[in-house]
Amino acid sequence: MGHGRIWNWLCIITLVIIILSPLPYEWSGIGQAARGLSVEISRQPDGTLASSPKAEALHRLGLPLRLQSLLLYPLLLISFQLGGGGLGLRRWLEGRIPGKARASSVRLPGIWRELLVVMLFVLVLDIALALIYLPLDSYRGLVLARQFGLSTQTGPGWAGDWIKNLLLALVIDGLVWTGFYALLRLFPCRWPIPAGALLMLAAAAFTLLAPVLITPLFYQVRPLDDQAVRARILALAERAGMSVDEVYVIDASVKTTAANAYFTGFGGAQRIVLYDTQLSGYTPDQVEVVLAHEMGHWTYHHVLLGLLGAGAAAWIGLFGLRWLLDRNWRRLGLRGPADVAGLPYLLAVVAVLTTLSLPFQNALSRYGERQADCFALRLSQRPQAFVELFERLAVQNLAVVDAPAWEKRVFYTHPPIAERIKMAETWETE
């Protein structure tokens, strides 16, 4: 059996595993039994926090699902590439686009024909991957979330969001990768320089525009209308030296029971966004702590620093991709580094490198979250409300309060809840 056939079989096996992967999780019975489990956290005799039984059950399913995605996605892509799938898809598309290679009354100039092939290749690949992962995504995002009481969505509602996400991905990926391959053709040796610059500009634009253009596609967004809470926020912002025109609320309760808040933007375009689930069931003091934490992100310029850091890392990564393409395009059977048939290989490489960099990325993220936590405690002077807030979040979001050291280093973007509560309790005694 030739190497190509071996890779083809590996691709088929991986594809089948991904499509059928929800079945073992469902057959485990963990999700079906979740309704009867307690959501309350507890304290051990030595005072340490213990996760709720329901959170532990969700974690037993969530961790292997996460590991599976990290391992199988690049394996699917690289086996598809080495089995000749990328070359076959590119040839198939070229045979259906009018140009020099085909007699037709409509002919496209060479460069435009090539870029059209690139865009269609990206769209077909995106749609194929979305359909392959549809069973897993629907199990994780709808079935499992409903079994554990974290979702209030109906099947049609979830499907509508899935279609919107797919359409957004098609638009963004189509533009990004078509632009990427255009730069490879225009600047064969120096393409990482303009590509890195454009990537940073695009990331900044997305950060600024996503709350205005994309979030409203999925949620209703409105200014906070509770005048008492608004007055507390304005007073808190004044103490922080921050100018706040509006705090926004999204109607997350139509889709989830989880509570959340986030800060986005930089310069004069920053905004604080609260889930409506964060406002219901939480005391004004607890909401103030949440907002003080988000103001901490503004104070330390975390969004801007994150963009600059990610941009610098991406720039270095682009030079690494150039090195890989220059050395491997012949082995992959490509016409050159700018051949879109090598896109699955690039996506697999990016996925592997992203996974390997997770400990570093998440360490920086946890550091920023600790800074924001300390800022929230200093600004609000409400350590007891801070403790109560995170105890409540652990119950509402079904979060485990702690995890093994390796899991925290690899997957945790925030410090575990037990660590954050301990910091506040220590703060209270100082």
Could you characterize what this model shows?
This protein is mainly α and 430 residues long. The protein has one domain (3-221, 300-429). It has helices at 3-20, 22-27, 30-33, 53-82, 85-94, 110-132, 134-147, 155-186, 192-218, 227-240, 276-279, 284-299, 302-328, 343-380, 383-396, 405-411, 417-429, and strands at 42-43, 49-50, 221-223, 247-250, 261-264, 271-275. The strands form two sheets. A four-stranded mixed beta sheet has the order 3-4-6-5, with helices on both faces. Strand 5 (261-264) and strand 6 (271-275) form a beta hairpin. It is globular and about 65 Å long. The model is unreliable at 101-106 (pLDDT under 50).
Note the topology.
Elements: H1 3-20, H2 22-27, H3 30-33, E1 42-43, E2 49-50, H4 53-82, H5 85-94, H6 110-132, H7 134-147, H8 155-186, H9 192-218, E3 221-223, H10 227-240, E4 247-250, E5 261-264, E6 271-275, H11 276-279, H12 284-299, H13 302-328, H14 343-380, H15 383-396, H16 405-411, H17 417-429
Parallel strand pairs: 4-6
Antiparallel strand pairs: 1-2, 3-4, 5-6
Helix pairs in contact: 1-4, 4-14, 5-6, 6-8, 8-9, 9-13, 10-12, 12-14, 12-15, 15-17
